[in-house]
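[Discussion] Sanity-checking designs against the backbone

I'm trying to build intuition for which residues belong where. Below is a structure token string of 328 positions. I'd appreciate it if someone posts a full sequence so I can compare it with mine line by line.
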């Protein structure tokens, strides 16, 4: 089969290759998916750059965890009626070498849920890391009905879904954005208020949007950078759920201030989510797709041959939506 792969770490344009590799077969409990799309996420780009030094110990890696396609074969123990199903794939390149940047992937049947609601394969490649991360951030600490959530970076890959999950569940959402286009996207997704996170009065602007009431939860894309403001606007007993801290990767925690506020701090990554949380996210995604209750943002779509360009787009940090590879 045709695939993208790398056998050394380094810049995308130097280490990513396109070539022929062996087509996998579905092992017991697995399905073989003929992929039509592959999603490129920040974690995929970081792995290629060397964030996991032992990743290449067993040989080359086909990158990317997210994708979508059609099941062509099943392994022992999997219902043969799954053949022909349109599915989305997640967690394909976690604790294993071969991800979705290829014509085929063989993967645990549970990691290939049905792609419902007539959603396109491009949408299917958005659901694994972005939509599931957002779901975990919003719901990991209980029902949000009637609560006020602050969602930073609301126009981003995860933030855009987080706004929708929270809004659909009956929460009031305050989102942050830095320009009119992103603010419009946040409002369209369901944010009741949008504030500029680059404003000198950032904390005051958030509290103005909530009529002075502190928020119940924060879904944060820049934990370290935003922490001082977060502590100003989060209520006693509130929760910060964070999935990234790029600007300040090793933040210093004001322990006593956080302790006296009785703050719960949750770190979220899809791969480490409990299986029950993954299955709840999948069920809610399925329902939302069938009912047409999710908006999706695809910022760029390009052929597999342009995987290096896709990686560079992610690294530049200028695109707000998903970056998708199409596979012939």
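Best answer:
Here's mine. Compare freely.
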């Amino acid at each position: 089969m045709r695939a993208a792969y790398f056998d050394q770490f380094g810049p995308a344009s130097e280490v990513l290759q396109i070539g022929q590799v062996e087509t996998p077969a579905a092992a017991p409990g697995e399905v073989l998916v003929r992929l039509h799309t592959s999603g490129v996420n920040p974690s995929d780009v970081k792995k290629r750059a060397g964030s996991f030094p032992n990743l290449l110990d067993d040989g080359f890696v086909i990158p990317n965890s997210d994708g979508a396609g059609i099941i062509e074969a099943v392994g022992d123990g999997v219902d043969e009626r799954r053949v022909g199903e349109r599915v989305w794939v997640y967690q394909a390149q976690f604790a294993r070498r071969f991800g979705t940047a290829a014509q085929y992937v063989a993967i645990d049947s549970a990691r290939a849920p049905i792609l419902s609601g007539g959603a396109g394969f491009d949408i299917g490649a958005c659901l694994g890391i972005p939509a599931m991360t957002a779901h975990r951030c919003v719901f990991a600490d209980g029902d949000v009905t009637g609560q006020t959530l602050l969602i930073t970076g609301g126009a981003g890959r995860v933030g855009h879904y987080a706004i929708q999950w929270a809004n659909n569940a009956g929460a009031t959402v305050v989102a942050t954005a830095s320009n009119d286009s992103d603010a419009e996207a946040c409002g369209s997704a369901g944010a009741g208020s949008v504030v500029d996170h680059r404003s000198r009065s950032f904390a005051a602007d958030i509290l103005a949007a909530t009529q002075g009431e502190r928020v119940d939860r924060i879904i944060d894309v820049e934990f370290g950078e935003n922490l001082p403001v977060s502590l100003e606007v989060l209520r006693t007993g509130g929760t910060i759920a964070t999935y990234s801290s790029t600007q300040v990767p090793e933040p210093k925690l004001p322990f006593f201030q956080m302790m006296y506020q009785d703050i719960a701090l949750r770190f979220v990554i899809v791969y480490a989510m409990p299986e029950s949380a993954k299955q709840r996210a999948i069920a809610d995604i399925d329902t939302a797709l069938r009912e047409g209750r999710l908006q999706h943002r695809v910022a760029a779509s390009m052929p597999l041959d342009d995987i290096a360009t896709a990686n560079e787009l992610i690294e530049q940090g200028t695109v707000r939506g998903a970056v998708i590879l199409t596979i012939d």
